[in-house]
């Protein structure tokens, strides 16, 4: 790439609109994607950078290609164990005790960067493990991501075996339709999340840097999972997102980030829970 200014413009746009920090790995992916996309459009790479920096749809199509998207069911088993034994029983109990007659009094949980849906369905399965009566009338797992392609895949709820690598056989048999043990299963088999779990989850597109989206989220959730996102954000974007996450939690609500992201979360009202890495609780 000859024109460093054009590339810088594009990087700045990714930071401004998506909050991304420019780590070495991100830069490598951007460079490769620019080559591919410029070749497809038959334009020089510099021209492609200028175009992508000034076109929200082209910028999003770049994000669709280069965002770090890896995820799998029950990614951090220790965290799901903590959700199953401590956080969700407390939230279900508190919720049933304080429930008033209203049109919409569901327990609201949010997977804030759900990629292809594994995190949201893991949370919904954990709800079922804690409360066999969990259904759309009493709990909602709201799940968002910025990438349309990921959300389309999530809404299909069909997964290959590698996505289930942290699930034991009992869990696979109970929560996935037609699960049968490898090596009998063809390698490309896909396993569908059972409908009682699927119906707890609602997928929507949201950019976590979009201020309009957050307006509707204030004081809404009892639990937010925002894992493996903070580590990719620019410091100013991260600070702003943590503030917004805090505002979106109800008092006493919980935030879960990846264990490796624990030290990135600094907020006066989010108190670290030392019993499990990556957990915070909103204080009064
Ligand atoms: C590594 S995946 C994490 C998936 C899941 N939370 C987990 O921990 O397994 C990161 C996800 O963040 C999403 N993402 C990145 N920037 C975003 C933004 N500004 N708004 C919403 N989602 C974003 C990506 O599209 C990607 O699906």
Structure in words:
- Helices cover 45% and strands 16% of the residues.
- With 284 residues, the protein is α/β, with parallel strands linked by helices.
- The chain folds into two domains: 4-66; 77-282, Vaccinia Virus protein VP39 (Rossmann fold, 3-Layer(aba) Sandwich).
- The chain has a seven-stranded mixed β-sheet with strand order 6-2-1-7-8-10-9.
- Helix 6 (118-130) links the parallel strand 1 and strand 2 (139-145).
- The N and C termini lie far apart (52 Å).
- The structure holds S-adenosylmethionine (SAM).
- S-adenosylmethionine binds next to loops.
Question: What labels would you give this structure?
Answer:
single chain; binds S-adenosylmethionine; 11 helices; 2 domains; 284 residues; 3-stranded antiparallel β-sheet; alpha/beta; 10 strands; 7-stranded mixed β-sheet; Rossmann fold; globular; 45% helix
């Amino acid at each position: 790439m000859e024109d460093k200014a054009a590339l810088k413009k594009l990087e700045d746009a990714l930071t401004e609109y998506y909050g991304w920090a420019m780590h070495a790995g991100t830069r490598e992916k951007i460079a490769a994607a620019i080559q591919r996309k410029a070749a497809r459009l038959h334009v020089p790479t510099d021209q492609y950078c200028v175009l992508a920096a000034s076109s929200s749809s082209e910028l999003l199509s770049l994000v669709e290609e280069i965002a770090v998207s890896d995820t799998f069911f029950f990614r951090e088993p220790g965290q799901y164990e903590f959700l199953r034994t401590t956080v969700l029983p407390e939230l279900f109990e508190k919720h049933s005790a304080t429930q008033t007659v209203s049109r919409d009094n569901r327990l609201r949980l949010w997977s804030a960067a759900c990629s292809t849906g594994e995190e949201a369905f893991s949370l919904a399965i954990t709800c079922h493990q804690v409360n066999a009566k969990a259904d759309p009338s009493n709990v909602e797992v709201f799940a968002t991501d910025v990438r349309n392609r990921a959300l389309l895949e999530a809404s299909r709820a069909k997964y290959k075996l590698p996505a289930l690598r942290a699930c034991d056989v009992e869990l696979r048999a109970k929560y996935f339709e037609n699960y049968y043990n490898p090596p009998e299963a063809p390698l490309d088999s896909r396993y569908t999340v059972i409908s009682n779990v699927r119906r707890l989850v609602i997928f929507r597109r949201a950019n976590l840097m979009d201020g309009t989206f957050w307006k509707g989220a204030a004081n809404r959730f009892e639990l937010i999972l925002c894992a493996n996102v903070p580590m990719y954000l620019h410091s100013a974007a991260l600070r702003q997102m943590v503030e917004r996450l805090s505002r979106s939690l109800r008092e006493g609500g919980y935030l879960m980030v990846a264990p490796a992201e624990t030290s990135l979360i600094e907020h006066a009202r989010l108190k670290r829970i030392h019993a499990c890495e990556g957990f915070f609780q909103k204080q009064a």
